[in-house]
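Archive maintenance. Older records in this collection stored only the sequence; we are now back-filling the structure field for every entry so that each record is complete. The fields below show one back-filled record exactly as it appears after the update. Entries are processed alphabetically, and Malate dehydrogenase is next in the queue.

ARCHIVE ENTRY
Title: Malate dehydrogenase
Organism field: Peiella sedimenti
Length field: 320
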Amino acid sequence: MARAKIALIGAGMIGGTLAHICAREALGDVILFDIAEGTPQGKGLDIAEATAVFGQDVALKGANDYADIAGADVCIVTAGVPRKPGMSRDDLIGINLKVMKAVGEGIAKHAPEAFVICITNPLDAMVWALQKFSGLPKEKVVGMAGVLDSARFAYFLAEKTGVSVQDIHAWTLGGHGDDMVPMVRHSTIGGLPLPDAVKAGFLSQADLDAIVERTRKGGGEIVALLKTGSAFYAPAESAIAMAKSYLLDQKRVLPCAVWVSGEYGLSDLYVGVPALIGASGVEKVVEFTTDESEKAMLAKSVDSVKGLIEACKQQDPSLA
Ligand code: A3D
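Back-filled structure field:
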């Protein structure tokens, strides 16, 4: 059987990391696409040479022409600019919306059958715009944010409690901004919902509150440390989990930015919710029960997403 073809649109920090993981795990042949000449070719060749060390038979190629992504099974989009210290994700709209237009048109022309995972920020607005610009089916265009935010939540819980990350299941919903919604009642340590884990002495309520706050600001914490860009290892791993669920029809339930039509009382936008990803793309949205406080937090987060979508429509009236 032919190997899958994975197109990475954007060969920067996340794109290069994605290519490395795809090659090491032999997920498929990789096309690294970027407007920067030499960068995708250089990273592609570097990783291709590494395949002879770790012993995987996959092909890697750098490209500056969309024709090279033809027939891709999966496209992972990181094209655009990341934030620098002092910037919010929303400050990126001006540049990244134009990038989404070019990328959307390129994918529509050359890889219209692909499952598309957007990572470019501000995530919920960019994946919305990418779907519009590409015209691809909504169930085949998703955004990566929730897997990363939930991984941060889980890691902080593991670090505090000493419990293996493997036995912590954490969920964040809503938009990928500082008002994202870490779902405390639905997240578990060794099967115990977090409020019960507090009662059982795994951590204090104050520790939990601090972890929720740190999770919300997790992206900014890394930006402040790196100074020259944003996180890339954990974002890349998160998108790979989504790509694998599609390519291998794993049917994992992962928090992703997906098009909602009525779920959680929301419609006509992309927002982070638990979604079952299989060979057809988004096959189901899982609806958690939400109490009044969770509903209010979700509504606030969704308002931020709607504000970003409005800003996109103002910048590019073709989206209105
Ligand atoms: P970076 O290392 O700058 O790579 C971006 C790449 O995009 C560069 O190589 C550019 O040359 C390339 N590029 C720019 N314009 C185009 C274009 N029109 N077509 C093709 N390529 C282009 O950034 P990065 O890899 O660190 O981050 C990429 C994006 O992911 C940024 O927007 C980040 O804000 C975002 N990001 C999102 C998350 C989420 O959880 C959603 C996490 C981390 C980063």
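Update note: The first strand starts at residue 5 and ends at 9. Residues 1 and 28 are 11 Å apart (CA to CA).
Entry marked complete.
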